[in-house]
Structures are given as structure tokens and as C-alpha cells.
Amino acid sequence: MNRIPQFLLAFATWLLLTWSFSIQNIVGGAIAGLVCAFLFGGLFPHENLWQMFNPRRLFWVLVYIPVFLWLCLKANVDVLYRVLHPDMPINPGIVKVNTELKSEMGKAFLANSITLTPGTMTVDIVGQTLYIHWINVPAEDPEKKARNIVTAFEPYLKRIFE
To answer: Mean pLDDT score of the chain, rounded to an integer?
Structure first.
């Protein structure tokens, strides 16, 4: 039963990527979606995936996308500054940050959002703790500063996944 939303997501992705609604394309997409759901369905978290089709959650996904893009743009400018600066002001390190997200999928999206933002990369997730490699760890209270990275994404992801 958990594979049905996975099939629907794969099929919808197929249709959006091919942008053709011919019979051959629909049948091919349905077959590809079934194969993907059957082969890879066990790799996804076993949370209720039907909740992802809730209109309230979809609304928050649409709100999250521009927020993520804005934070990504700001991080790109910051990394560009550090690369082009003659002294290359970096202080790399790994910081430990706790998250309030409970769902495995929510934590996975948080980790991916952090990793997709230039200058940061999630190294590991252990329970409620994320280990983040950061290009410039500030000397004063690094955990508090790193918490700002997580709090930029967390409120939106909490509304989407919990």
C-alpha cells in the first residue's frame, strides 16, 4: 500500500519531464513508475506517504521553494566572496546541531537542504543530531551560529513533514 504514492510520484515526474501525453508515453511512464515503485519502494522511509498529498502540505512546499532558493543564493554570494578574497577567509570545521524534526523524511530533507546550500554539507545524522561541515566556523559559540543554519529551514519542513 505504501508503494502507491511512490508510483504516483514517479509517474507524475515522468509526465512532467517528458511533457508528452501520447498513449505510448503514458503507458511507458506507468510501466517505469511501477518498476521504480516495486524495485526502490523499500528504500523510502516507511512513514505514511499519503500525507504528502495533503493540500496544506503542498502549499508549504510551494512556500519553501522560494525560501530555499533565496538562502541558496545568499550562500552562493558568501562562498564567492570567500573564494575571490585575497586572504581567503575560511575556517572549516564540523559542528553539531540538534533538530526538532521527528520524521525521518523531514530530517533527510533538512540534511539535503543544508548540503545543497553552498558552504555547508551534512556529514551525518544521529538521532536528532546533525553533523554539518561548514566552510567558515565562527570562533565565538559555533553551535549557536550553526543553529541558525537549521532554523532557516526547520519551520517550513516541520509544516511539510510533521
So the answer is: 86
